[in-house]
Structures are given as structure tokens and as C-alpha cells.
């Protein structure tokens, strides 16, 4: 009986961890306690395991090194507090409120315009904050009362807000992608590049769903009434401004092209955006009215967050900054934007630091517990058990991806994305790599899948965030004075279901079309025109180390592949090294008769295929 337990320690340990979590123990402490408990059991049962348990008491001394190397000295995870701080400061700066009001006015005349605005703002907040809680709470407080005021269906309104907030999971600079890249041992910049297109495609699928619902159920998503569109129309003015900016971009790119070929488009974009932003500011400040109010507001409100996105993601994609440095610049940029809006105060900084410290400590404690668990789990060959279990699935790599996606989807009902990343991903990565699956592609699939963890009824965190700010009781609308019905929890849950289905479809799309992710590698290099030529003066070729490698390090090789003069590698491996002193003339010796050999190559005095190596078997 004890032998059976010892030889099956890995599955027993994994099942016991799940039981610990289901009972309700905190994840970090469940991981650490489980690892230490089974370490003690494993040491005692190691003699009965037949070699399947590799644990001993001195191995406990490796735990401090694992803490320091994997947690304290992990520079990649430094990006987590930077991006968290940036997101909280931007939330407090009122950027979300300005974006929702402006884009809502822009899309107001069409059915579902407010829902489109929520999705677009959700994508912009995702690309600037990277924090789901900040996005959902901000949009729930600002846009939900407006959508209810103008007759939006409660299920569609709540589902759109919750789903748009979860875009921060997959659109860079996502905290999930940072952790996934760290656990998979891949570059955060490559993970960001690979996830960008799937994130934009998912945003487009959300908007396509709103478009379909606006046709099938037009009364669920009414247009914004004319009296609510306080900025007027002015779309033509905005189109003209964008056309002028495009012309400036084209002209500056052509002008800078000869001198800055690779950087010309970037500088052209920076100059065009700066010019149009300065013109809009001057037009609004001095009342010139060259642009419509709508065009002014859209340009002034949209360009700062877009500039912040470029400051963070652009520098990472261009290789100018690491993700940690990009996060630091984003945090400084967020403080600057909040200061410009005169919303930066000691209280805002205190709240941002408090939230950042809590989230960072949460991540660190889970990572410490995961290190203790993985030390024991690897000691009982648990990684080999998981790898053999997953690589033996039918269907090859696609069968593996489908089964793993289902597993992560089900575990996401109970585990947070950080917990999934620290517990499950390290066990899945070796199996994926052994099947030849690109780990960036695999990480993006997991990222889209973990996004569903925020939307699962009844445990989705985004649903909890929205429930905390949605009205629970009838209330009086402050603008119209009408009594409004509350938003029930069932509205939030049923509103989330279509978006969960869209996320599942997106997982299938990423699996079926890996090109959406694999573009991060860049264009393939054409090697058809590459030629390798050996210099004509080195006739000894690859068959003679004395002739071929003697020249770069010592005296040149003699014609015909004869051994080089003493002092280089041509003297063979058996002679004494010469460190630069003049060598004495070599005394010629009578050549020993060599036995005839078929296909003897030229330069037989070296380490070639045609004769014995000098210094090891000749002379």
C-alpha cells in the first residue's frame, strides 16, 4: 500500500491541492502548505518509490534561492506594480469619463452608439491601464446610468460594460501577459506583439455583436436623442482634420525617408498628431472656430491617451525600452496627465500606492507559494506525469490545445488568472514545448481563455465589480427626474453569457489561425540567394586544422595545406604553446613513410579526415 502511494505521489499531490482550494483556503497558503506537507511525506516514502521520488532534507536549503531567484530578483515582474500604478492614476484622473462622454457623442446618432463607445473606450483603457477592475468600475459608474437613462436593455448594457472591461486581459500592456511571459520563459515584448491583433479582433467581434443586436432588437439599443448630443454634429470637420493629418504624415514621411528610412513613418506620425493637436488646442482656446466643437473635443480628448499608448507600447515594440522601463514611463506619463487635468493630489497618489501595494503583494505571495509547491512537485516527478498525460492525448498539438483550453475554461470558474498562471501554466508549458507548439502562440491562447475567468457567471470578477457599482434599488435619475428600475444580478449574469460565447469563439479563431499571433517573428528570411564560398587562398579547406585554422591565430598556412609555422594552431595539439616569443627554427626531419590511404585529402598534417592528427599520433 505504501509503495503504491509513493509511486503515485504526483497525482495525489495535485488532487489534494484542488481539495485545499475548494475548501476555501487562500491560494498562496494552500500552495505553500501543500508543498511542505508532501515534502515531508515524500522524504519518508522515497526509499519505497523505486526512484520516482527525488526528495531529501538538504533540498529544503534550495527554497531561499528559489525565492530570491524567482521572485525577488525577477525584473520582469517589476512591470506589474508600474502598470498597476499607471492604471489607478489614470482612473482617478477622469480620463475614462472624458473618453466615454466624447466617443458617446461621436457615435450617438446611430443605434447602439453608446454600446460602441463603451467597447472602444474599454479597448483604449485596456491599452493604457491594463487593469480590469479599474476599467469595469469606471465604465460602470459613468456609462451605465447614461445607458439606462436612454432606454438601453439592462442585460445588453451590463454585459457590454463587463466584457469591455475584460479587454484589459488581452490587449497590451496586460498584467496577465506579463505573468504568462514570465512563466513560459518568453519575452514580454514578443507576447505583447503576438496578443495585439487577437485583442483587436476580439474588440471587433464585440462590436459586430452590438451591430447584429441593433438590427434584430433595435429597441434594446436606441440612438442618443438629439437634445442629448450637446457637442452637435460636426463629423465633416473631424474628417477634414483627419485628412489634413494624413497629408502631413505622408509629406513628412517622404521628406524624412532618405535620411531616416526605418524611423520615417514613426516621426511622420508624431509630427502629424502633434500639429493637429496643437491646432485644436489653439482653435478651442482662442475661439477661432475653425473646427466644430465635436472635432475639437475628439482630438483633444483622444490624443493624450493615444500618446501614452505610444509611449508605453511603441517604445517596447521598437526595442527602445523593456516592458519594465515602458511601465515606468507610463506611470510618469499618467502622473503628468493627471497633473495637466488638475486632478493630481496626495489622496490620489495614496490610493494608487495602496492599490498597487495590495496587488503586488498578492502576486508575490502566490508566486512564493507556487515556488514551494513546484519544488516538491518536481521532486516527485510531477512534471513528467503531467507531460506524459498531456502528450499522449489524441489529435496531436490541436488535440492538446483543445483539451487544455477546456481544462483552463473549467478551472477559471474557481481560480483567478494569477492563480492559473502560477499553478497550471508551469505544468502545461513543457508538454506544449515537447509537441513543438510555439509558446507565444500558446500563451495568447491561454490569455484569451483566462479572460473568460472574469466573465463566468456566477464567479466572474468583472461581474462582481459591476455588481458593486450598479444600482441595487430603484433610484431617481438626476437629469430627467424619472424613477429608474434597479439592475438585478440576473441581468448582469444573462448579459455576460453572449460575450462569454464570443470569447470561446475567439479561442477557436486563435487556434485555427495561428498567423494572428505568429506575426511577432517578423517576415521570414529568404535564404535561397545565400551562397557560402571558401576563400581561394586557403586550399587546405576544412580537411586541415593546421592550414584552415592556423591563419587567424598564428602564422599563415603554407600553400598546399602544409602545417603552419610554430606559434599558431598549426603546430598541432601536442606541442607546447607559444605566447608570442620568436620560435626557434624547426629542425627538419626525414619524413616517415606513410601507408597509402584511399581518398587522402590535402593538408594531411592537420586535424582533417585524411591523416592522423599532429601531436596526437604522428611524429
TrEMBL record:
GO terms for cellular component: plasma membrane. The keyword Membrane applies. Residues 578-587 have a biased composition (Low complexity). Residues 554-619 are annotated as: Disordered. Keywords: Cell inner membrane, Cell membrane, Membrane, Transmembrane, Transmembrane helix, Transport. It holds the Pfam family DctM. It is found in: Cell inner membrane. Residues 266-516 form the TRAP C4-dicarboxylate transport system permease DctM subunit domain. It is a multi-pass membrane protein. The chain crosses the membrane at residues 12-31, 37-60, 67-90, 114-144, 156-180, 195-216, 228-252, 264-282, 294-318, 324-340, 361-380, 400-427, 439-466, 492-513. Residues 567-577 have a biased composition (Gly residues). Signal peptide: none annotated. GO terms for molecular function: transmembrane transporter activity. InterPro entries: DctM, TRAP_DctM. Part of the tripartite ATP-independent periplasmic (TRAP) transport system. PANTHER family: SIALIC ACID TRAP TRANSPORTER PERMEASE PROTEIN SIAT-RELATED, SLL1103 PROTEIN. This is Sialic acid TRAP transporter permease protein SiaT. The gene is siaT_9.
Amino acid at each position: 500500500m505504501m509503495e503504491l502511494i509513493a509511486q503515485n505521489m504526483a497525482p495525489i499531490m495535485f488532487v489534494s491541492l484542488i481539495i485545499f482550494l475548494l475548501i476555501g483556503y487562500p491560494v498562496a497558503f494552500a500552495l505553500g502548505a501543500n508543498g511542505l506537507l508532501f515534502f515531508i511525506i515524500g522524504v519518508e516514502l522515497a526509499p519505497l518509490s523505486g526512484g520516482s521520488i527525488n526528495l531529501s532534507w538538504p533540498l529544503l536549503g534550495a527554497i531561499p534561492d528559489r525565492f530570491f531567484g524567482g521572485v525577488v530578483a525577477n525584473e520582469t515582474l517589476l512591470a506589474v506594480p508600474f502598470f498597476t500604478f499607471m492604471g489607478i492614476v489614470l482612473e482617478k484622473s477622469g480620463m475614462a469619463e472624458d473618453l466615454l462622454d466624447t466617443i458617446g457623442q461621436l457615435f450617438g446618432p446611430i443605434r447602439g452608439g453608446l454600446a460602441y463607445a463603451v467597447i472602444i473606450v474599454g479597448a483604449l483603457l485596456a491599452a493604457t491601464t491594463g487593469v480590469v477592475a479599474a476599467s469595469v468600475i469606471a465604465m460602470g459608474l459613468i456609462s451605465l446610468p447614461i445607458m439606462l437613462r436612454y432606454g438601453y436593455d439592462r442585460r445588453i448594457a451590463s454585459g457590454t460594460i463587463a466584457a469591455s472591461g475584460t479587454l484589459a486581459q488581452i490587449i497590451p500592456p496586460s498584467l496577465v501577459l506579463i505573468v504568462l511571459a514570465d512563466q513560459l520563459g518568453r519575452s514580454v515584448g514578443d507576447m505583447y506583439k503576438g496578443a495585439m491583433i487577437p485583442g483587436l479582433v476580439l474588440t471587433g467581434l464585440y462590436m459586430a455583436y452590438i451591430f447584429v443586436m441593433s438590427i434584430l432588437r433595435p429597441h434594446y439599443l436606441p440612438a442618443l436623442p438629439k437634445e442629448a448630443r450637446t457637442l452637435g454634429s460636426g463629423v465633416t470637420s473631424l474628417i477634414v482634420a483627419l485628412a489634413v493629418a494624413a497629408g502631413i504624415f505622408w509629406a513628412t514621411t517622404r521628406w524624412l525617408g532618405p535620411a531616416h528610412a526605418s524611423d520615417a513613418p514613426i516621426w511622420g506620425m508624431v509630427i502629424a498628431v502633434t500639429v493637429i493637436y496643437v491646432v485644436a488646442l489653439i482653435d478651442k482656446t482662442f475661439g477661432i472656430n475653425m473646427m466644430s466643437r465635436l472635432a475639437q473635443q475628439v482630438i483633444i480628448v483622444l490624443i493624450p491617451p493615444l500618446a501614452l499608448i505610444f509611449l508605453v507600447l511603441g517604445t517596447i515594440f521598437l526595442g527602445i525600452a523593456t516592458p519594465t522601463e515602458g511601465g515606468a514611463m507610463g506611470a510618469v506619463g499618467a502622473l503628468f496627465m493627471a497633473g495637466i487635468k488638475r486632478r493630481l493630489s496626495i489622496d490620489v497618489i495614496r490610493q494608487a500606492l495602496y492599490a498597487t501595494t495590495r496587488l503586488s503583494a498578492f502576486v508575490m505571495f502566490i508566486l512564493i507559494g507556487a515556488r514551494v509547491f513546484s519544488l516538491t512537485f518536481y521532486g516527485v516527478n510531477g512534471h513528467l506525469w503531467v507531460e506524459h498525460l498531456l502528450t499522449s492525448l489524441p489529435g496531436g498539438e490541436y488535440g492538446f490545445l483543445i483539451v487544455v483550453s477546456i481544462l483552463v475554461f473549467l478551472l477559471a470558474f474557481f481560480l483567478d488568472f494569477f492563480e492559473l498562471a502560477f499553478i497550471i501554466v508551469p505544468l502545461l508549458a513543457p508538454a506544449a514545448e515537447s509537441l513543438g507548439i510555439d509558446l507565444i502562440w500558446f500563451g495568447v491562447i491561454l490569455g484569451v481563455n483566462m479572460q473568460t475567468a472574469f466573465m463566468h457567471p456566477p464567479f466572474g470578477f468583472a461581474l462582481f465589480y459591476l455588481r458593486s457599482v450598479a444600482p441595487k434599488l430603484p433610484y431617481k435619475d438626476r437629469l430627467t427626474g424619472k424613477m429608474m428600475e434597479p439592475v438585478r444580478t440576473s441581468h448582469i449574469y444573462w448579459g455576460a453569457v453572449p460575450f462569454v460565447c464570443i470569447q470561446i469563439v475567439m479561442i477557436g479563431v486563435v487556434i485555427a489561425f495561428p498567423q494572428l499571433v505568429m506575426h511577432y517573428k517578423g517576415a521570414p528570411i529568404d535564404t535561397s540567394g545565400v551562397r557560402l564560398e571558401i576563400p581561394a587562398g586557403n586550399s587546405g579547406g576544412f580537411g586541415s586544422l593546421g592550414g584552415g585554422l592556423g591563419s587567424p591565430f598564428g602564422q599563415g598556412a603554407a600553400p598546399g595545406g602544409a602545417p603552419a609555422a610554430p606559434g599558431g594552431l598549426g603546430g598541432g595539439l601536442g606541442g607546447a604553446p607559444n605566447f608570442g616569443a620568436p620560435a626557434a627554427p624547426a629542425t627538419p626531419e626525414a619524413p616517415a613513410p606513410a601507408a597509402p590511404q584511399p581518398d587522402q585529402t590535402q593538408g594531411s598534417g592537420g586535424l582533417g579526415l585524411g591523416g592522423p592528427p599532429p601531436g596526437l599520433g604522428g611524429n
